[in-house]
Specification:
Rossmann fold, seven-stranded mixed beta sheet, about 30% helix, nucleotide-binding, magnesium, ligase, Class_I_gatase-like
């Protein structure tokens, strides 16, 4: 079995609690982590702590069955598993709790470790915990973690208020825990950009050793795993037939590990390169994948590497099957205006410029494909996710997607660029329930190269 770490709301410290648990456990055992939702950055921290790829559990981008299969397959390869939730316990997509932490807890039949921000609470903590425990009787609340406790006296009051609920306090973190992970416009600063990550992991492990009731926690983590109805499917990698260049550096690092694995299983050899440091694309490639990331934070360095920009432009214009997602799309524009208002030249394949702004575009998108691309056929519908502060100066005359929002959302837009043999869009896709996407991409690469 496992635990799912939930917050009573966003910002209560569930990521810090999760990382401290993972770091402490990882000192003696192999731990597989999972993250509810479409997030890329929190899973980077999980991987930095455990040394294993964190897996996203998102039934909107995939399906309930895929969530079950993914959890069963990857938790079976480790001694222990731990899931980090998303937002508040019952906060889901649209106007329901679909894709919420509570939804995943029910789907996987795992108990909940509820993190409470106690910085502005005393006895009221009991009313909050009672409400969360009773709101959905299908859920099992295993215990609580009291975060940002001010003093021993404060802790005494909190525990006294919680005592009548007969719910264990499984962790206590004081305000001066000494761990600070910097953040910015799209969340935490990614691990690739942090100095002294090893020191942070050690601090997290020390906090984990000292701040949790391991005598009560370990039986919860070590319990026999419930057999899920969805059996894990064996994954078979095919013979490598094409080489696909994957942009991977601090500017481009938003990739679902499932996507990269599915590419490999479809017959691709992944060749990693850096648009920041490498002077050209890798030799003898038949496809290119430019993932999301933070090109706005590295715009000057990307612009300075003119040889790489020209190499990418020539390859795209020559018809190399290319997939560019969010940050990758930004890189392909004529220019990028960063957060300080400075403008830098980019690749110049797309006849538009991109600039950073205060407005945040965020949410799940149902995308109906309007034309054939290297990834998708016209008429196909897929679910994706947008999360960006940038805007393009103009839209494509022949957009890839007709977008609508999730649930009650009134969003309606057309988006995406398809030039040469390029699929470029702000929409992030998870290919878990669409293995035909990487298969089509590999097939396009084979055709282009004459294999």
């Amino acid at each position: 079995m496992t635990l799912i770490v939930a917050g009573e709301r966003s910002g209560v410290g569930k990521t810090t609690v999760t990382l401290a648990l993972l770091a402490s456990l990882n000192r003696q055992r192999q731990v597989q982590s999972f993250k509810v939702g479409p997030d890329y950055i929190d899973p980077m921290f999980h991987e930095a702590v455990t040394g294993r790829s964190c897996r996203n559990l998102d039934p909107v981008l995939t399906s309930e069955q895929y969530v079950q299969q993914c959890f069963a397959r990857h938790s079976a390869t480790a001694d222990l598993s731990l899931i980090e939730g998303v937002m508040g316990l019952f906060d889901g997509a649209g106007d329901s709790d679909w894709a919420s932490t509570a939804h995943i807890a029910r789907l996987l039949a795992v108990p909940i470790l509820l993190v409470i921000d106690c910085s502005h609470l005393s006895r009221s903590v009991a009313a909050i915990v009672h409400g969360y425990r009773s709101f959905d009787p299908r859920l099992r609340l295993a215990g609580v973690v009291l975060n940002r406790v001010a003093s021993d006296r404060h802790l005494e009051v909190l525990k006294g208020a919680l005592a009548p609920l007969n719910l264990p306090v499984l962790g206590v973190l004081h305000r001066n825990a000494g761990i600070k992970i910097p953040d910015r416009h799209l969340g935490l600063v990614p691990t690739d950009e942090l100095q002294g990550m090893e020191k942070i992991v050690t601090q997290l492990a020390d906090v984990g050793d000292q701040c949790f009731d391991w005598e009560r926690l370990m039986p919860l983590l070590m319990s026999p795993k419930k057999t899920l109805d969805a059996k894990p499917k064996p994954l078979q990698a095919k013979e490598r037939r094409v080489r696909v260049a994957i942009a991977k550096d601090p500017a481009f690092n938003f990739y679902y590990p499932d996507n990269l694995e599915l590419l490999e299983q479809s017959g691709a050899e992944l060749v990693f390169w850096s648009p920041l440091k490498d002077s050209a694309l890798p030799a003898d490639i038949q496809g290119m994948y430019l993932g999301g990331g933070f090109p706005e934070m590295f715009a000057a360095a990307l612009a300075e590497n003119e040889q790489a920009r020209q190499s990418v432009k020539a390859a795209v214009q020559a018809g190399l099957p290319t997939y560019a997602e969010c940050g990758g799309l930004m890189y392909l524009c004529e220019s990028l205006q960063d957060l300080e208002g400075q403008t830098y030249p980019m690749v110049g394949v797309l006849p538009t410029t991109v600039s950073m702004g205060a407005k945040l575009t965020l949410g799940y998108r149902q995308a109906t494909v309007q034309q054939n691309t290297p990834l998708l056929s016209k008429g196909v519908q897929v679910w994706g996710h947008e999360f960006h502060h940038s805007q393009l100066s103009q839209t494509s005359a022949h957009p890839i997607y007709d977008l609508s929002g999730y649930g009650a959302s009134t969003l309606s837009a057309r988006e995406g660029w398809s030039l040469f043999n390029l699929h470029a869009s702000y929409v992030h896709l998870h290919w878990g329930v669409h293995p035909e996407i990487p298969q089509r991409f590999v097939h396009q690469a084979e055709q282009q190269s004459g294999l």
